[in-house]
Amino acid sequence: MSTTDNTAAVAADGVTGSDELVDVVVIGGGPIGMFTAFYSAMRNLSVQLIDSLPQLGGQVAALYPEKPIHDIAGFVSGTGAELIANLQKQIDSFGDRIDVHVNEEVQGLNRLDDGTFVLTTKTRSVHTRSVIVAIGSGAFAPRPLAIDYDRDGLDGSKVFYFVKRLADFEGKNVVVAGGGDAAIDWALELEKIAAHVTLVHRRDNFRALESSVAQLRESSVEILTPYKFVDVVDEGEGAGLRIDLAQVKGDDQPSLHVDALLVNYGFTSDNHLLRDWGLPVKRGDLQVNEFLETEIPGIYGVGDAVNYPGKVKLISAGFGEVPRAVNHLSEELYPDRKQPLHS
Ligand SMILES: Cc1cc2nc3c(=O)[nH]c(=O)nc-3n(C[C@H](O)[C@H](O)[C@H](O)COP(=O)(O)OP(=O)(O)OC[C@H]3O[C@@H](n4cnc5c(N)ncnc54)[C@H](O)[C@@H]3O)c2cc1C
Which one, 47, 232, 293, 296, has least CB within 10 Å? Predict the structure, then answer.
């Protein structure tokens, strides 16, 4: 593969290019992108890791740093923040080979005639021999309650969509909305520190791990099902919230007076950039083969951003994709380098 550097020729106005040609740019610094950068450096590749958020760690750091994670091999009783701190230590151990850029959204991805790529952000461009897309579900936002309420005014003060600091809920009277894994996990975590926790769900059944549901039913969490939200009213400074509920197919219409409401209705995501970049996308997911490579040679995808038969969107599954992708691209870039048996 030729390594002609024609970055300058494609750089947009106001965007500074670099003469350097890196082996791989990892777009997205969630857990899978972080591990990808580390593993690429371990294979002696030069790496840039770029994330649009101010900190690395993706969904784990942004949405659930204090939630325990139970389903990663060898990672026992650790929180999201601990997992990201461990991944950061791995990156730091190859600090000289991994160039990390946060607060930078990759907006453009162009393939040059020689098979290399130029990525552009608002302020610069980078020339690379390969790209690994690890952007998760793209830009995401929490799904609010499906009623009219002062969403902006209450956000982060009395109504929450994720838990950044468990301590914020200590000694409080909290309502958790939702019936999935996250709602039940949080109800059980908050039970340990809150004064009282009520779980409100519009159905009688929960869509969560059976063991968690069993634990919930044995806990002190008050379960209100099937109830829907009618209104959420701010009771003023120094006071809490009034939450009006209505029983689904029933007459009960209780009002709860609580300190905080934690809504767990999932997230909406936007992966339109993949299409803008001309990449193969199906139902919002990047399509990859058994080497995690797209149909465009040199562009790979790992983690929540991709799909293929048998794909599981979990951290442990994403970690497993990384050696497959990186070892394959390493051999493409440096045919003399053989697959490693282990580190
Ligand atoms: C509440 C909740 C609890 C969860 N609990 C668990 C659990 O217990 N166990 C488990 O295995 N999984 C869990 N998950 C799922 C897990 O978080 C995801 O599978 C994982 O985060 C995927 O990692 P990723 O690196 O692929 O993507 P993400 O974590 O989504 O990271 C993608 C990163 O890419 C960045 N990005 C996006 N677009 C661009 C761009 N254009 N330029 C630069 N950067 C960009 C984003 O800013 C983000 O930092 C949970 C998810 C949620 C929401």
Answer: 296
